[in-house]
Amino acid sequence: MRASRFFISTLKEAPADAEIVSHQLMMRAGMIKRLGSGIYTYMPMGLRVIRKVEAIVRDEMNRAGAVELLMPVVQPAELWQETGRWQKYGAELMRVKDRHGRDFIIQPTSEEVITDIARTEIKSYRQLPVNFYHVQTKFRDERRPRFGLMRGREFTMKDAYSFDRDAASMKVSYQIMYDAYIRIFTRFGLEFRPVAADNGAIGGSGSHEFHVIADTGEDAIVYCPTSDYAANMEAAEAAPITLPRAAPTLALTKTATPGKAKCEDVAALLAVPLNQTVKSIVLTVEKEVDGKLDKQVWLLLLRGDHDLNEVKAGKVPGLADYRFSTEAEIVEWFGTPPGYLGPINTVKPVHVVADLSVAPMSDFICGANEADFHFTGANWGRDLPEPVTFDLRNVVAGDASPDGKGVLAIQRGIEVGHVFQLGTRYSEDMKATFLDENGKPQLLQMGCYGIGVTRILGAAIEQNFDAKGIVWPVSIAPFEVVLCPMGYDRNEAVKTAADNLLAGLLEAGVDAILDDRGERPGAMFADWELIGVPHRIVIGDRGLKDGKLEYQGRQETAATAVDLTGIIAFIRARLPA
Amino acid sequence: MRASRFFISTLKEAPADAEIVSHQLMMRAGMIKRLGSGIYTYMPMGLRVIRKVEAIVRDEMNRAGAVELLMPVVQPAELWQETGRWQKYGAELMRVKDRHGRDFIIQPTSEEVITDIARTEIKSYRQLPVNFYHVQTKFRDERRPRFGLMRGREFTMKDAYSFDRDAASMKVSYQIMYDAYIRIFTRFGLEFRPVAADNGAIGGSGSHEFHVIADTGEDAIVYCPTSDYAANMEAAEAAPITLPRAAPTLALTKTATPGKAKCEDVAALLAVPLNQTVKSIVLTVEKEVDGKLDKQVWLLLLRGDHDLNEVKAGKVPGLADYRFSTEAEIVEWFGTPPGYLGPINTVKPVHVVADLSVAPMSDFICGANEADFHFTGANWGRDLPEPVTFDLRNVVAGDASPDGKGVLAIQRGIEVGHVFQLGTRYSEDMKATFLDENGKPQLLQMGCYGIGVTRILGAAIEQNFDAKGIVWPVSIAPFEVVLCPMGYDRNEAVKTAADNLLAGLLEAGVDAILDDRGERPGAMFADWELIGVPHRIVIGDRGLKDGKLEYQGRQETAATAVDLTGIIAFIRARLPA
């Protein structure tokens, strides 16, 4: 490629709405252009990266035996009504009517369409297993699109759907995809981590997220450096504390804590460690029973130094549909404002549930259900009944790993892939069956597997950048090598050498671009450092006289002189096979 | 590829709604699957063809210096309001509101978005010319989707947009695209014809359509077999008839023609040639003048054997906004029902315009403006004023070519490409300017260039099929070669030879598929003939013993024995370089 035949458009400053580094750098490097909120044109430079990401994804999907097709962007509402997602999906689902007033959606994902295809195309167990995928434009009407390609509304996703005859076979298909994802993210050249994830409302038996590691990641991911354990924060289990509970040493005492509504403040006032305090979180569950609204109030107890895990709370029997109580509800039920609540001497009946780590506590501190007072010296069995316990909290660094093989660490990640065992979630609603060996209809067992193709670009940059710009891993860089001739338009020897080298590199299968725009060296170098091309070759008159070129890697601080005769081999050795 | 790892799904019968052969065969061959009216999933077999079409398109677009980007499917209404197309586009434009109630459209084309990009990205004449293209999903909410991929609602289009500094340079960019289209359609292996087209409402100075020739084509295209002249029916000019008008020989006579409202019937009754009759077509033009509706009635005269060209009619000064008059309007204005109208003795004033071919007539027959009567022996100058003439009719086979180099022929075509000189149609509305050498802002001169990627599939099949199924040109066939082993699952020699041959062909860059499904020969052959793979190699036990395989081209009636040792070279010789 020649820069004069390409379209390069760099900016000194990122627009004000670009809050994070990947968004800023993609805008500055001319990779994307904003069309509307969360909607971007992929400019030529950005599209090259997308195509390289897609090529790796396709290659590994095909190798794993998945078959590519292409499902439509605009999908009839009827299928989404069959699975109930037309009703449940909410405002993120972009709905549209055609000229006849019929309802359609702009697809955010394609479970319904692929299940519709499967129920007509898959007739016999002999056709199984099969895995279909497509790489297609998706739309999610995010409430607050931001961060460029990280949380856009229109985006490109690879989504695959496996169909199997039974759960055991489905798990095999799942593992094949899991392994393919490992290869894909490895080939991207990104540091990543697969983590166990919660199946959430979809149900089913297993799920993993693939996270690109980056300090700026939205998600906290949990792992054990000395074992294979890894999970996202929602799913990471807190191992039960096995130390026995110490015997009480203090009497239960109502202690004045005026104005100290937070555990941190109470602990400071009373000069005790934070982990000696217990915080109380109030939840409301409302149900219609015989036409009347039945309201339950739950009190969740956590150690003062721990945070509630809202997903885990929802798994406590009876709490599936909880919400946080309002301040007015709390005052009405407890007769005291939040900050002074506790499980002892409640005015009205509450369901008390304690986190696993609260049960082994003794002589602990909790709210006294009276403004400006806490109890100190509280003890289970003596001052209140033995607790009902669940795992309710987010794990913290240093917690024991649930596999017993070390302690947990926490890092930040950006979710770019998700694999899911769906089981019969969709096949049941849509009556997608096949005939088994006995000619009996059986529900198809499904898995689904997504990769956020355009999101990969944002994640890769969040992980790989410096003060000069983007530092692309070579496998997804827009170009592998840039040739920067010094005086291309006025020095015949330089021009000839540059033209010949470009031809030689292309011939050798190297994705090279020659900057023949006639920019001055400083501007030229700054452009390509911003764009993030991994390898740069400078062709100058002086070096040429000695048969030398200057090579510099994107993150190297100095150039290396390389013989003109050996430059192609030199570059090839620095590229993926 | 192995058939067992692919997804093959053929049908004996096409669904009832498939009216045309390409739709029937694509459904039967499992290339597409209907999701909704005019909305199809591209199944694995169909997607392979689409990808081959796209690859040829991209290759030639890149070679022509166009730069690929990707514009969004969902586009904000504001841009479409700037050009007025939000108002004018009508019901085909799929409109959608986001969660905040803002208006968007699902793009049928991207002039607005690319012009928006150009007006911010193109600052200087030094950046020109530039040509951007994308291959993207489009949506047009057709009133009556039908014919499978030929008139669908969701489809894939390649659209390119050139930007130039002046009209002369724009014409150069246009010619480059025209030439690229010639290469593209040649590489598809399809019989095609570029024809001059009408620019229509868009204005501008030039336009060509590219038609795939097929008897079933929707469009009549006009060409001169002995010259380069070619145009679509709308644009094909009728050369003026240069023969002098013969002198009158008959008196004007009101002649009874009871119940004969058509020229054909009148000619038969009076035993004269049809081209001696003149038909009258009544048009209405309504305009608001000073708040009042001014209604004009026009009478267009054509020879009885000719058809009105509605596009040409719209170009007559004063007729830009015409519509056909209703029967009630005709009765009111002429005092007689349609079928007996004519230019002589009209009750109320009408604007009379005659086609070029009507002016040289003498002793002609026309309606007498009285039910069941025509005039015979009508003559210009004597019975009515000399006519105002325009080219108003569709040309017919045998007409003189307007370039004077022969006579016109007509064939049927399917429009699959369109190139367009837009001029400043969009840049003016959207104020898309660049700075010229003198630092003065100038409007960008634009061209746009479309290829209906998915439509190509339908058109290719309409042109290339037989009783057995599709006959793909090799360059866009889903596979180039199919290997059909006889007893793959039970004959070790056959299996080994088939596996080795597949590996050898893939190694040689041949896109081959091995049918290892274990189907019986008859079913296997029928599947691949239906799917339309151009080359078939049968691997049988008997032949192998003599070192022979059986080759048969898709349209050959008998097989050829080929040496196993030479088979790869044999096949390579039959494939595009």
Automatic annotation (TrEMBL), chains A, B:
UniProt cross-references to InterPro entries, sorted A to Z: aa-tRNA-synt_IIb (IPR002314), aa-tRNA-synth_II (IPR006195), aa-tRNA-synth_II/BPL/LPL (IPR045864), Anticodon-bd (IPR004154), Anticodon-bd_dom_sf (IPR036621), Pro-tRNA-ligase_IIa (IPR002316), Pro-tRNA-synth_IIa_bac-type (IPR004500), Pro-tRNA-Synthase_IIa_type1 (IPR023717)
Top-rank taxon: Bacteria
Domain Aminoacyl-transfer RNA synthetases class-II family profile: 33-473
Predominant place of localization: cytoplasm
SUPFAM superfamilies: Class II aaRS ABD-related, Class II aaRS and biotin synthetases, YbaK/ProRS associated domain
UniProt-listed Pfam families: HGTP_anticodon, tRNA-synt_2b, tRNA_edit
Sorted UniProt keywords: Aminoacyl-tRNA synthetase, ATP-binding, Cytoplasm, Ligase, Nucleotide-binding, Protein biosynthesis
Cellular localisation: Cytoplasm
Catalytic activity entry: tRNA(Pro) + L-proline + ATP = L-prolyl-tRNA(Pro) + AMP + diphosphate
A GO molecular-function annotation: ligase activity
The enzyme's E.C. designation: 6.1.1.15
PROSITE patterns documented for this protein: AA_TRNA_LIGASE_II (PS50862)
Enzyme class: ligase
Record function comment: Catalyzes the attachment of proline to tRNA(Pro) in a two-step reaction: proline is first activated by ATP to form Pro-AMP and then transferred to the acceptor end of tRNA(Pro). As ProRS can inadvertently accommodate and process non-cognate amino acids such as alanine and cysteine, to avoid such errors it has two additional distinct editing activities against alanine. One activity is designated as 'pretransfer' editing and involves the tRNA(Pro)-independent hydrolysis of activated Ala-AMP.
Family, similarity comment: Belongs to the class-II aminoacyl-tRNA synthetase family. ProS type 1 subfamily.
Quaternary structure (record): Homodimer.
Domain notes: Consists of three domains: the N-terminal catalytic domain, the editing domain and the C-terminal anticodon-binding domain.
Protein name: Proline--tRNA ligase
Gene that encodes the chain: proS
